[in-house]
Amino acid sequence: MTEKAGIYGTVLFELQIPLSMGQEAARLMRENPALQEALTSPAVPKKTNTQ
Length: 51
Prior knowledge:
Elements: H1 3-14, H2 19-31, H3 33-40, H4 46-49
């Protein structure tokens, strides 16, 4: 596991995010590659992808 993944896991645990919510987010990312691209693309201003 990368350090970044460990940090993300710790944050999710501390926020008590339900496993089902994480699984749903993963499913949405798998089924909608354009969503993941938009959320990680430097061409999309951060303000836009956090609305």
